[in-house]
Structures are given as structure tokens and as C-alpha cells.
Design brief:
about 210 residues
Amino acid sequence: MFNNRDVVNIYCIGRNYRLHALELGNEVPEEPLVFTKPSHSITEMAGGVITLPGTVGEVHFELEIVLKISDSYKPGAPINDCIDAITLGLDLTLRDVQSKLKAKGQPWLPAKGFKQSAPLGTWIPFPGEAELASVEFSLRRNGETAQIGCSKDMLFGVTELVNHIEANYGLGPGDIIFTGTPAGVAALEDGDLLEAYWGEQKLGSCNVKLV
Ligand code: ZN
């Protein structure tokens, strides 16, 4: 069983769903937009309370498919050889902080890499890229569907992302990849109950506390 403390690198993909890029007024990228989070940003969506910054503007939820790399990737080899598990994760974002950083051309770290900014659900076996694209994932907030997505709508698919990251930054066992969020992102409210579903299977939940 994989322990989240063993995560090595956290790669994240921005603007990988057309409708999400457009909802924030961003252009659709021509190649994957990659950023990272510190491993210290990881927390678990295991039913408990997640405490987040509540005094620096909006904290947006972004539900994403997360891939776990189990073995070094050899270009051209089947993708199943290097990914062994997936889960759903939240790429939590301080949106107002991010807007200011973007305006100044500064790195996104303060907006994307804060503590608890990467809650992860339970890992399940990677079903393969085709099967992955047959399942819808969703975020329910206080019982209502807030986001719904499917990997078939990714601008850059799993194989492309793995190739791109390996070629430019390196990829090895223990690395994870947040693959981007579908449309529907919004600001969290104190006390929100978030539940992440893979089809009908709940992979994680948490209560939000803003302080
Ligand atoms: Zn994201």
C-alpha cells in the first residue's frame, strides 16, 4: 500500500480542460502547462477537517485525476508499465493571490503550494488510459455536484503528459501528476463538506475550515 509520505515530486497540469481554461479567461495552451507543489502540501481526504488560509482571498477547489508513477518511464513503452494507481485530488488554489502573482509575472508557489493545498483521496488501481476515459469523476459540495469531468476531455492525455514531463523534468517512482481540472471551480466556504467521486465510488471526503 502506497504511503503518501513517500511522494517524491508533485507535478500539476494547468488549463488541461478547455472549458476550465475559458472560465478563468485564459487561453488554451499549445503544450502542457506544468507546475509543481512541495510534497508538504499533501494531506488526506479521509473524512477529517482540512484547515486552509481564510484571510488571503478566495480558496478555489479544483478536483483532478491524480496519477501515481510506479516505475521509470521508457518512451514508447505501454503507459501501464509506469502508472500503477490513480486517485482524485484537490489542487487547492488561492485564486486572488494567484491573480496578483500572474499580473506581476511571478511564480505561482504562494498560490498553489501552501500547506494542505493537495488533499488526496484513496488510491485505486490504474485501469489503463482507455478505461480511465470511460468514467466520470465529480466533486460534490454539501451534497450538490460542483464539478464533473472525464479524462476524455483533457487537452493533453495521460500518455502525452507522461512523455512531456519525462522529457523535460524527469519522472520516477513516487512521483504523482495532477492532470488538471474541469470547469466549475469556485471559492470554498468555511464548513463546506467536499466529497470526491470516481463514478459512484467515493474516494475521499473532507470538511473545510478556513482560518
Ligand atoms: Zn489544477
